[in-house]
Write a structure and sequence with these properties.
This protein is an alpha+beta fold. The protein has two domains: about 1-50 and about 175-405, Glycosyltransferase, CATH 1.50.10; about 415-499, Immunoglobulin-like, CATH 2.60.40. It has 14 helices and 19 strands. The strands form six sheets. Strands 2-1-3-4-5 form a five-stranded mixed sheet. A five-stranded mixed sheet has the order 13-19-18-15-16, with no helix packed on it.
């Protein structure tokens, strides 16, 4: 459930629509926050916050370093000399190491040290939510350093995130979960995750770039791609855009085939709009993550091809909307660049997606994961992706599924009453079958008298209402009514015999 909520995995603004602008809190000149509509973002945000129990988020930088670097050890036998323990790695210490090994030049080293110290100083002056959020981002940076993952290529994204949080929490407004944030001097998209500050939305930012292409705003497209490209890191033999917060059992840094696929799509569109071959060169360097297995890469080989993962830390999870969007990115890049590797990766994923997709169609609605229905927003999202693949490949499985999902938006739910008898004096359940996620109400009548009524949300399949015991034998009327996520309504009337 948490993965679906995140993806209401990470599915942040994958296909922006210029007709539906989204509200964004923008920190501008004079440290004023103005809420405005960004015409390149979806009106409905699809990325709620991660679970705070998913990773070792400890308030304060000292606690994080301690928690990561001081595991429980067995008692030292008497008479055995204590071996010297290595000093724990810290963000400042790792910066110094990278500078001394010439992985970072003097100017960047000084700039990163200034950002780090400024954030530490600001966290010490703040209080309440502001202090907690900035401290948590500092904690994430220290945890990445403590585990030896603070590499030179990660410094731009890590310290941009840290400085953005210092700026926001010292001068910006308090935020609600899922609020999107921008800065007046940047096109990047950020999102607020309570307990982890504002985090760079790589997928949302590349989705915004796609929106700029659709709108013909090529100047801002160049600017945004110019900000995003330097934030790619070396991983899995190529360039990858990562995430730097804890989520659902995944420790940072992690990545996603969905954000990487959207990056390929945006780079393809950047080349088409601006005729700059450097975008294709960057795209080719972004391909290898699709060839590598998790946790470094996102490819899981299957009997018929390959599946590309929403989360690099969750190889057993198949989220169909993310998989399909990654294929769209690979297809578009291969088509524009004529890159053989991208084409081969698309074909491997396409074979698997064609095999998998029917199992995500319940006959009445779409599934997010197997057994878990989509929300209305996700149903519309995956329907759009399936249409995209139908248009590109003309494969019958995509085109047929797209028609099914379109029809689901206007087809009422189907109810079947499954309980028809019960015993007097016994509490019982009224079981019923439901074709799709709906809000279902029940009314029990004896003649014209209403004896019991209630309602609740249910998923597809067999469900039940618990009802109190009946004191009288005889026949009762049961009315069931359902309204699905798209507002379609149906009802049935049945009989319950009490003996």
């Amino acid at each position: 459930m948490l993965r679906r909520l995140f993806g209401l995995a990470l599915v942040a603004i994958a296909f922006p629509c210029t007709a539906a602008a989204a509200p964004v809190a923008v920190l501008g000149p004079g440290d004023r926050v103005v809420v405005r509509n960004d015409p390149f973002l979806e009106a409905v945000p699809l990325t709620p916050g991660p679970t705070l129990a998913a990773g070792p988020i400890v308030r304060g930088t000292r606690s994080v370093t301690s928690a990561v670097t001081s595991p429980t050890r067995p008692a030292r036998p008497a008479g055995v000399a204590r071996a010297p323990r290595p000093a724990p790695r810290t963000a400042a210490g790792e910066l110094t190491r990278l500078y001394r090994t010439r992985a970072v030049n003097r100017a960047d080293y000084r700039r990163y040290r200034t950002i780090l110290q400024s954030a530490i100083n600001a966290a010490g002056r703040l209080s309440g939510t502001r202090a907690a959020e900035l401290s948590s981002v500092l904690g994430n940076v220290h945890a990445i350093a403590a585990t030896g993952l603070m590499t030179a290529s990660r410094l731009p994204a890590l310290f941009l995130t840290l400085d953005a949080n210092r700026r926001w929490w010292t001068t910006g407004s308090l935020l609600s979960s899922g609020d999107r944030v921008e800065f007046a001097d940047s096109q990047l998209v950020w999102e607020y995750y309570p307990g982890q500050g504002i985090e760079l939305q790589q997928l949302g930012s590349f989705g915004k770039a796609d929106g700029m292409f659709v709108a013909g705003d090529y100047r801002d497209l160049r600017t945004l791609l110019g900000e995003l490209i330097p934030l790619a890191v070396r991983r899995a033999g190529g360039l990858v855009w990562e995430y730097y917060f804890y989520f659902d059992g995944g420790d940072p840094p992690w990545t996603s085939a969905m954000s990487q696929g959207t990056a390929l799509e945006a780079l393809s569109r950047g080349f088409r709009a601006l005729h700059d071959p450097s975008y294709l060169a960057i795209g080719r360097r972004a391909i290898p993550v699709f060839t590598a297995s998790p946790p470094s890469g996102v490819r899981v080989r299957t009997a018929v091809g390959s599946r590309y993962l929403q989360y690099s830390f969750a190889p057993g999870v198949s989220i169909i909307n993310a998989f399909l969007q990654s294929l769209i990115g690979l297809y578009d890049f291969a088509h524009v660049s004529h890159d053989a590797a991208a084409g081969a990766l698309f074909r491997a994923g396409d074979a698997e997606a064609r095999a998998e997709l029917p199992s995500f169609d319940t006959g009445a609605w779409s599934l997010y994961e197997r057994g878990l229905e989509d929300s209305l927003d996700y149903h519309k999202l995956v329907t759009g992706f399936v249409h995209e693949l139908c248009d590109r490949t003309h494969a019958s499985v995509y085109c047929t599924t797209a028609r099914h999902f379109d029809s689901d938006l206007t087809t009422p739910p189907v109810l079947r009453m499954l309980t028809h008898r019960t015993r007097r004096g016994l509490a019982t359940t009224i079981r019923f079958g439901l074709s799709k996620a709906s809000h279902v109400g029940i009314v029990i009548l004896r003649g014209t008298q209403i004896l019991f009524e209630t309602s609740a949300d249910f998923s597809y399949g067999v469900n039940a209402f618990a009802i109190p015991a009946s004191g009288d034998t005889g026949d009762y009327t049961i009315r069931l009514a359902a309204t699905d996520l798209a507002g379609n309504f149906s009802r049935i009337i049945g009989a319950l015999s009490v003996s």
